[in-house]
Design goal:
Structural class: alpha/beta
Number of domains: 2
CATH superfamily of the largest domain: Type I PLP-dependent aspartate aminotransferase-like (Major domain)
CATH class of the largest domain: Alpha Beta
Strand order of the largest sheet: 2-9-8-6-5-3-4
Radius of gyration: 19 Å
Helix content: 25-40%
Order of helices and strands: HHEEHEHEEHEEEEHHHEEEH
Distance between the termini: 15 Å
Shape: globular
Number of strands: 12
Length: 283
Amino acid sequence: MKKIKIAPFYDKQFLEIDRPQPLSDIKTEILIKEVLGGGIDKDISDNLFTNFIDHITNYITKSDINQFSGLEVFPNKDIILGCTHFIDNLYMQGPCQTILNDYKYHERLQLGQINEVGHLVKNVPLILSLPFPATGDIHTKIDAILSESLEKNIDVHIDGAWLLAAKNINFNFAHPAIKSIGVSLSKGLSLGWNRIGIRFRKIKYNDSISIMNQYNMTNKSLIIVGLHYLKNLARDYFWKKYETTYYKICTDFDLKPTNTIHIALKDNTPVGLSPLIRFIHES
């Protein structure tokens, strides 16, 4: 299989500026070959659904490089088709708002309001990325955001699309303003081509995601592939394997490190390191 996202030589021109891409490597591409070659579990029974939820929950909660607490107050777990599915489901239920410089998908949709901290709109749900894409870390004003949300009766929904690609995230999700969390395998396990993940919710009610889960409508092939990756990639895989390389690139090109493996900051702007990481290890 042809390698993707690898720089032809070691130079700053191969920092990704316009649209930084998540990290992949030879190991994740071998897993693609195994999937395409049929070298995966053949179980297509309904046991897949609970099996996947158990595996991904353990994968998230037992991280060696992050400390996630408070997830026990989110008893309702549903399979999602990546975090974009999680976001789309929220917009289906009515207007939402986001913080300035969050995931650009919100801006492209033009369905909600983009506001600054201190100017959030009462009673309108907030979708907030963690890690935040502009910084690759927890939003610097997260405490103010959650306090303002609680004061203004704003339900907060955490978009954890980058959570499995992160380290040093010490966060308690049990804050009363937070109502749900979506976590995807796309960034942390290089599975953007097979979008699958999990949603945690405090309160159970019917929506498009819960109905899909209630009637086992989620595509089983996506779940099978997700399970194959969960079983064959160690927790915190990319950071454990490429941390030294990540910091070398930051030093060599005068970049500010973040807590997300494929992102650093150049003049306070996110740039992608994936092509250079791959060059060092695979050229």
